[in-house]
Amino acid sequence: MTWLNSLKIAIIEEDITKIGTLTKELPNYDSKQEAEEALALIGEAIKLVDSKKQKTLEAMKKIKQTKVFLESH
């Protein structure tokens, strides 16, 4: 399986760990089209990671609020 296909699958599956692994192993491309596709996919991966990060921060905030509430009662 090619690197591009692996990254596409990781994005579809929202597999942050696999995305991280793949972005550490960036291949060199001879074709401008493949390089542009890789760049676009990396952009999508960044959006996905940022979204997951935001959701995690929101969940952590709710947990902290719940903890404070439970400790006050």
Give your account of this protein's structure:
The model has no long low-confidence stretch (mean pLDDT 95). The chain is 81% helix and 0% strand. It has helices at 3-12, 16-23, 32-72.
Roughly how many Å is the radius of gyration? 18 Å
The low-confidence runs, each spanning 5 or more residues with pLDDT under 50, are none
- The fraction of residues assigned to DSSP E strands is under 5%
Order of helices and strands: HHH
Largest sheet: none
Query: Regarding quaternary structure, how should these chains be classified?
Result: single chain
Query: How many domains make up the 3D coordinates?
Result: 1
Number of beta-strand segments: 0
Structural category is mainly alpha
| CA(first)-CA(last) distance | 56 Å
Number of separate helices: 3
- Percentage of residues in helical conformation: over 70%
Mean pLDDT: 95
Output the keywords.
3 helices; 81% helix
Task: Describe the structure concisely.
The chain has 73 residues and is mainly α.
SSE layout:
Blueprint: H1 3-12, H2 16-23, H3 32-72
Helix pairs in contact: 1-2, 1-3
